[in-house]
Design a protein that fits this description.
The complex is a heterodimer of chains A (303) and B (213). Chain A is an alpha/beta fold. Helix content of chain A is 41%, strand content 18%. In chain A, the strands form three sheets. Chain A has a seven-stranded mixed beta sheet. Chain B is elongated. The chains are: A alpha/beta (303), B mainly alpha (213).
Chain lengths: 303, 213
């Protein structure tokens, strides 16, 4: 699986709302039942307004599995899908793979306003060591570059400390795109004109080329979160890890293993940022929940 | 600009050499028992996940370990091993008075799947009713066709009201209309317990509505 960030299609997403047919597959009661099921599997809740979105995609999954009702489909998932492949198809179909600059920006605000000040507070001197941040899965690079831009734009201490930003994905194809730093209008739609002018060069046909020095500031490499030895190389290395909208794709055991790996990769006192629909509290008790004004994140205890 | 690319990147392939060679099972078990730090013991537990023959020893270590973080690593190792021996090693803690450990055992068996099934079925005959309730809780989460049969047997035979009620809650997940008769039979065994009638009626309604919740 690629590390593409994903989200559920929403009623305010024109692609999710404009062209959807009326529901024909499941009743309101079944929609509630499916919502409960999907929540238990992924921690994701659909709003009532997403009935059309869910209905259309469920119809596809019913057709693919030969199910003629929600009951039959859930029975199929429970008894016939021991590998979890159909569940993965279902999850994929219920999410829209996309990522863009400044996605879930509130966490970057939290990074600058709360997390980094707390980290550097423990430094005896500014040059003590570099602050190390990790974005995984980084997909085509929008997240780690967003972090870099946020630091440069909004962290007043950025010139006092050395910061190293690492970014990884299991998919080497997306890493090549990330290193290239070439984006379209959609990717940069939430950046204001000033930021775009500072960090991008406008290309032809709506393309945006990230500035070379910013591209050079992020270290990209393939890393598999599920590979214990791969992860052990990064033990205790990071102050902050962004791992957003990945764990929703994992089963319960894989999530727990991922939580262990992320815990070990953090320094004592380091922070983990998950996607808005993900909760470490449902996965593992290893971390301490930290509620900051801009976001709730998870911290590895100091001792 | 203070954003730096690391000069000594842990991401670089040369860093692979820093990973130590794997230890033997004996060394790992020694480290698991006597490792000076949590990190050492957690590492040992994670490495032992690749050695299924150590399931019993991992179970013993789980009972002695006080750190919740090392316990988590041991439980995950046993779930990863996933053999009937690993299920038995974890299942021993269903009767523990240590509530977090007992809850961890229930959760681990639920996540182990088929290899836990055969072990848990035996627990349905345990003399302690609490253990049988936990066994039903595990069965509820297992993806096994046999699970509904086990639950029907509980409903038909288990002498303890609370074990039966746990099975009522669980069998709703499987949702076979044929289970209505089994549920009614359970209610008939406890005619003076209004809550049983209430729970069974609700379960029957949910099952006949055609849904799995």
């Amino acid at each position: 699986m690629s590390g593409n960030e994903s989200r559920i299609g929403t009623a305010d997403d024109p692609r999710a709302a404009a062209s959807e047919p009326a529901p024909t597959v499941i009743s309101n009661e079944d929609f509630q039942r499916f919502q409960d099921f999907f929540y238990r599997k992924t921690g994701i809740i659909f709003g009532a307004a997403k009935g059309y979105f869910v209905d259309r995609r469920l119809a596809d999954r019913f057709a693919a599995t030969g199910a003629d009702s929600l009951h039959a489909y859930l029975q199929h998932l429970k008894y016939d899908d021991l590998s979890g492949q159909e569940l993965q198809h279902l999850i994929n179909s219920m999410t829209v793979n996309e990522t863009y600059f400044y996605r879930e920006e509130y966490q970057f605000r939290c990074l600058v306003a709360s997390i980094l000040p707390e980290i550097v507070h423990g430094f005896p001197s500014a040059g003590e060591r570099p602050i190390r941040l990790w974005s995984l899965p980084c997909s085509t690079g929008e997240e780690p570059y967003s972090i870099a831009i946020q630091l440069l734009e909004n962290w007043r201490d950025v010139d006092r400390y050395d910061v190293e930003i690492f970014a990884s994905d299991i998919d080497t194809r997306v890493l090549a795109k990330a290193r290239a730093g070439l984006y379209d209008d959609r990717s940069v739609q939430y950046l204001n004109a000033l930021v775009k002018a500072r960090y991008f060069t406008r290309g032809t046909e709506g393309s945006w080329q990230l500035r070379d020095d910013l591209r050079a500031s992020v270290d990209f490499a393939p890393v598999n979160l599920n590979d214990r030895l791969d992860m052990r190389r990064h033990r205790g290395s990071f102050d902050v890890i962004f791992c957003r909208n990945l764990l929703i794709y994992f089963d319960d055991v894989s999530r727990r293993q991922a939580a262990e790996a992320l815990y070990d990769a953090l320094r004592p006192g380091g922070f983990l940022c998950l996607g808005h629909s993900e909760s470490m509290s449902r996965i593992s008790s290893l971390f301490t929940v930290r509620k900051f004004p801009d976001a709730t994140v998870y911290q590895k205890p100091r001792a | 600009m203070a954003l730096l690319k690391s000069r000594d990147s842990a991401f670089s392939s040369s860093a692979v050499a820093s990973v130590p060679a794997p230890l033997s099972a004996g060394d790992l078990l020694a480290s698991l028992h006597a490792g000076a730090t949590e990190a050492e013991r957690r590492d040992a537990a994670a490495d032992l996940a690749a050695l299924p023959d150590t399931a019993c020893a991992l179970g013993a270590a789980l009972g002695e370990e006080a750190s919740p973080r090392v316990r988590e690593a041991i439980v995950l190792a046993l779930v990863g091993i996933g053999t009937p021996e690993a299920a038995a090693a974890i299942g021993g803690f269903l009767a523990s008075e240590d509530v977090p450990l007992r809850n961890a055992a229930v959760e681990a068996l639920q996540q182990m799947g088929a290899s836990a099934g055969a072990y848990v079925e035996k627990l349905l005959a345990a003399p302690d009713s609490d253990t049988r309730i936990f066994a039903v809780n595990v069965i509820e989460a297992l993806r096994q066709q046999a699970a509904s049969g086990w639950l029907r047997r509980v409903l038909a035979r288990d002498p303890d009201l609370n074990v039966g009620l746990a099975a009522v809650e669980a069998i709703v997940q499987f949702g076979e209309p044929a289970d209505v008769a089994v549920l009614r039979g359970f209610a008939a065994r406890f005619p003076n317990e209004p809550f049983v009638t209430f729970a069974v009626n609700m379960a029957c309604r949910r099952i006949t509505a055609g849904g799995i919740t």
